[in-house]
Amino acid sequence: MEQIPVPPNPKTPASQQEAQQTLLEYLQRTVDALPAGTRLDGSRYVVGDGTNYCEDHPSGPDAPVRVEDWRDIKPAPGADFDAIVIQTGEVWKQWGWQVIERDGFSKPNRFGYAPDGYILQIEARPDPAYPPSLIGSSPCFPGNLRGDADRNPVTIEQSP
Description:
single chain, alpha+beta, eight-stranded antiparallel sheet, 2 helices, globular
């Protein structure tokens, strides 16, 4: 099994809203770096409040949580799905992130580990007729900091 990178400058989010906003910024930067016409669609995944416990067996409602954001990549027609996965990993490397391909996931895949502890992962689907998925997660933060943060938009379009 591959070694999961340890963030050199971890930053614990001060609120759910901060975690969501930082994750949204990373997702926006990612889609902006992909081929023209690409967008991120979260409509299949809009469930819950966006937080999940960090532990398999949380010790109570204040146990650490993280924000997660799950998306389908909607590329322009005719896009090479495997090339999108590989290109995305290269973009994250250009940002100074540690990027690895992990075993146990559909290939190709890339996991990008930001210096501040955020993680983005892009993965080919088991059925190659479907475009890759993209998942982002924040570092863990105290569960009592969960709040009524605004939801991230369902679709993230490329910036003009």
